[in-house]
Design goal:
With 300 residues, this protein is α+β, with helices and mostly antiparallel strands. Helix content is 41%, strand content 16%. It has helices at residues 3-16, 45-60, 96-109, 116-127, 131-140, 143-153, 174-185, 193-203, 266-288; strands at residues 67-74, 80-83, 89-90, 171-172, 224-232, 238-249, 252-261. GO terms for molecular function: hydrolase activity.
Length: 300
Amino acid sequence: MSTPAAALLLGALLGAGFPAAASAAPGPPGEESVLGQHPLRSPEPGVGARITRNLDDEVAGMAAGTRVAVSVQELGSGTTFDYHAGQRFVTASAVKVDLLVLLMLKAQDEHRALTADERDLLAPMIRSSDNDAAAEVYDRIGGAEGYREGAARLGLTTTRPGDDDHWGKTETTVADRLRVLRTVFTVDSPLSQEHRAYAVELMGTVDRDQAWGVSAAGDPDRSEVKNGWVSRSADKGKWAVNSTGHIVHNERFYLVAVLSDHHRDEATGIKQVERSATTAVDGLDQALQGPGARAPHAAL
């Protein structure tokens, strides 16, 4: 996301409130969102089936054993599409959004602002995916046990800490990735507005070489992402490649999570993640433009 676009989004977030938990449409700047205005709902059966067939066809053309899971939620209507939402994948660096959220919650629980030292850890952890910073943050939230407690607090029902107390080996599902994204990008969140705005800023200004992934399904200058990628010895060197974030497509606001593994290399995984995100978002967006669909909500 460009700096001006990030500033515009942050201004809307702090001044008007953010969309409610994939339920309330954000109004124009200065107009409050209404919690629960649009309850979560599934797309029409034919729409979901069509997107699923398209994704099945894509995966069928990949190497045997490759897995892909996708979850997309349009914030204005609450419409959500899931593809293999219950399959678990290793998070790699995508879990760093969780660590960011949990350290900010720790500061809130202690009735204080983030310290300069904490910000000096969080900024490179998200923007540059600094692993040393992530290890320090993981320790500060209490390691695996602290993460387990924090995940329960966030409502993550299918996420579990990694083996050997290593944050990068955390296992999760796309359904839980969307729950984490909602803590950042909706007002139905335990985070304060200030902390949500800080998370949006960091995810909107990741290093250019890490801005790939779900951003391909929308306007790259109006996207916030955090990705994860790792060559896994447990999978004979094959790659797990993940992308999560918030995008704008046709003036609609989407939360998107794609998890995948068993790729022969990182580049192949990135290409598939971007393709799957685009297929799911395009399919859902076309359905929302059909007869009787609600008009896109105002841009932030």
